Amino acid sequence: MKFKKMILMLFVVVIATAFTNKAIEGYKVGDTIEDFKLKNIDDKMVSLSDYTDAKGFVIIFTCNMCPYSVANEDRIVALDKKYKQLGFPVIAINPNDPEVSRGDSFEDMKVRASEKGFTFPYLFDEGQKVYPKFGATKTPHVYIVSKKNMKVEYIGAIDNNSRDADNVTEKYVEDAVDALLASKKPTKTETRAIGCSIKVLR
To answer: At what angle are helices 172-181 and 67-83 packed, to 10 degrees?
Structure first.
């Protein structure tokens, strides 16, 4: 009888563990971020401190292989073209382990950036050291940071339709950056990022 109870308790623990998804701790809105230095697709190292004239950054964790990321590529390019000249450039980071996500290697990133005409840095998070600090869990996952205090101003999705750009009714990132450019606080500072999970070698 005791043995059966032990088996039952063990089963309950295993089931509970399997369905427990511990959130990654990371930056929250209002937090100050650390600078980072990652390799760009041009083989040069890039850090936020390189952008001496920037007012802030639209940091987007994205990748080659996730269909949600692919569906947002044109929107990411458009964000950079619109806001880079206003002081808020896009900084894209691929957080996936290429051993797990085939097609997300550094060489594959170069090919994809060339095919899509990326106008922004596309950085490789080698060793996956940067994305956990942010607490990113999806691709795409956006963090808007003001440069003055390196403070997080917004976390979440690009807009309210991750799959279909034609049916977007709320442009979260544009609204947030527009508010910051007008020296105002964004109306929405956090939304739910919808996309693929970041691929980690376990």
So the answer is: 20
With a cut of 80, say whether residue 12 has pLDDT above it.
no
Supply angle C-alpha 60, 132, 112, rounded to 5. 40
Q: What percent of the chain has pLDDT over 90?
A: 87
Model's pTM, two decimal places?
Answer: 0.87
Question: Which contacts of 115-120 are long-range, i.e. CB under 8 A and separated by 24 or more positions?
Answer: 116/73, 116/74, 116/77, 117/77, 118/41, 118/76, 118/77, 118/92, 119/77, 119/80, 119/81, 119/84, 119/90, 120/76, 120/77, 120/80, 120/84, 120/89, 120/90, 120/91, 120/92
Q: Environment class of residue 146 by beta-carbon count within 10 Å: exposed (0-12), middle (13-18) or buried (19+)?
A: middle
User: Residue 19 domain-assigned?
Assistant: no
Identify whether 168 is part of a domain.
yes
140 prior amide bond cis, ω within 30: yes
Any domain includes 62: yes
Q: What pLDDT band is residue 13 in, cutting at 50, 70 and 90?
A: very low
User: What mean pLDDT comes out for the span 94-107?
Assistant: 97
Domain that holds residue 183: 24-197
Please give the Cα distance from 31 to 127 (Å, whole number): 24
Tokens of 103: 């097609």
Give the residue carrying structure tokens 């690009």.
158
